[in-house]
Amino acid sequence: MQRRSTTLVLFFTACGTSPSAGETSGGSTSSTSAAADTSGGEGTSTTSSDPTTSGSTSGDTTSNAEGSSTTGEEIELAGACALDVHVGGFLAGYETSYSAFSGSVADGVVPLNVLEQVSEDGNCTLWRRNNPFCDPGCNAGETCDFDGNCLPYPANHDVGVVTVTGLAKPVELEPVPPTYSYFDTMIPQPGFEPGAVITLRTTGGDYSPMLLHGIGVQMVVPTEDELYLDGSVPLEVEWAPGDAHATMRLQVAVDQHGVTPLAMICEAPADAGSLTVSGALITQFLANGISGFPSADFYFETIDSVDIEPGCVDFVVRSHDQLLVRVAGHTPCNVTAECPKGEICDVMNQTCELP
Prior knowledge:
Number of helices: 1
Order of helices and strands: EEEEEEEEEEEEEEEEEEEEEHEEEE
Number of strands: 25
Radius of gyration: 23 Å
Largest sheet: 10 strands, mixed
Strand content: 35-45%
Helix content: under 10%
């Protein structure tokens, strides 16, 4: 999971000296352009080109609807943090029934969150969650690393006041002790408009100040009510196409109670509208175990990230929907009455099986 970069080009109204990208604050947008107020003074405004535009530089000029000249400045979205350096992040999430903002930053990486890539085919990869083992076991407040050593469990830190502009309402938050988490669950629905330029700043706290950006995305809309996995049969996944600046990410889990379960993650441009999962990858995925109620999570998202003292922090702007997944030969259950005749429910693994 390495970083993938996206270029975001902002255009500022010329009024004396053009403000830098770090001096703007977000505002309302349409699906193809974004408007924002600057912090430079009363009545000054900025406009953004389509965020997918690339190649413009700070100093290019164009004309807005009122005939004023504007100057462009590139902001590159750095993509996701690598898992082995990811120490926290922030999320502006747009769900089907609500929108919210949340985040936290720790002083280290949680070993359990570092997944192992075991296979790749086309747009899709398989990732295994491994469980570190320490003997003797670790004490309270400690965690085990993959070398069998106990170390202090990473603790969240105060990163100062977090402000986010470009959402449906501005957000300004201080951390909530003792977890030093940031959250706002009262953001209007939807939490942002497609194409909105979203800017996150922190004042510093225990670590250096951060500046991160995102772009508003549409609600992701799968075209089917469920996914069906059948052995080695390739899977065609479709969704209503979104904006070109976003990524569509599909995450499928079929082994909800396994010791070392795999997750299948597929990515494609949001405007592609479809992707194909190979039969070979599905065969490998299912062979590693099936239990519980399989699910598929669909996301449209943009991701920016920045390195600070303890590691990498990201900012994800995304929409999300979830589908059930049916797997040939597997019946999930909570009680035996949900199983086919002659089978019983293994309640621990939520799986119907022969007695």
